[in-house]
Amino acid sequence: MAANTSPIFSRTPDIQWVSGYMTAVNTTADLTSGTIYLIFTADATEGGYLRKLKFRPTPAGTTTKTVARLWLNNGSTTGTAANNVPFDEVSLPAVTADADDPTYGIEYVFDGNVPPGYRIYITLGTGTANGWACTAFAGKY
């Protein structure tokens, strides 16, 4: 059987984000416990395309240096370690908010397809009082 030779395009834009700011540390090595942040869920039937994640520090105060760990979940419970795999990390620097100067964001380019129902979660390596926002820029098939 021949592979698909037709290009695939998103049928609709899909922007998702973490509700509130990410502040809590999670040191578990398998995503089965602790605070986890859901950033992206692919369409349950057709899947999706995740272009990038944009991390922004809170404009309300200072953040501490941390690392955002990115996890792929197969759409099942995160409580079972075999359903999750860590796939990358993003360094998030310490940022001091200032009313006169803009803070900057960090972009993580995923640029790939996500199977139907799969999810992407984030954990933080160290906690921070004011936190980080994260937005996923994607498309639904």
Strand % is 35-45%
What is CATH's topology name? Jelly Rolls
CATH classification, class level: Mainly Beta
Strand order of the largest sheet: 1-8-3-6
The biggest sheet, with number of strands, parallel, antiparallel or mixed sense and barrel status, is:
4 strands, antiparallel
Number of domains: 1
Radius of gyration from the CA trace? Answer: 16 Å
List keywords for this structure.
44% strand, four-stranded antiparallel sheet, Jelly Rolls
Structure description:
- There is one protein chain.
- The protein is built from no helices and eight strands.
- The strands form two sheets. A four-stranded antiparallel β-sheet has the order 1-8-3-6, with no helix packed on it. Strands 2-7-4-5 form a four-stranded antiparallel β-sheet, with no helix packed on it.
- The protein has strands at residues 12-17, 37-41, 48-57, 66-73, 84-92, 106-114, 119-124, 132-140.
Concise overview:
The protein has no helices and eight strands. It has 141 residues and is an all-beta fold. It has one domain: Jelly Rolls (Sandwich), CATH 2.60.120.
Strand and helix layout:
Elements lengths: L11 E6 L19 E5 L6 E10 L8 E8 L10 E9 L13 E9 L4 E6 L7 E9 L1
Antiparallel strand pairs: 1-8, 2-7, 3-6, 3-8, 4-5, 4-7
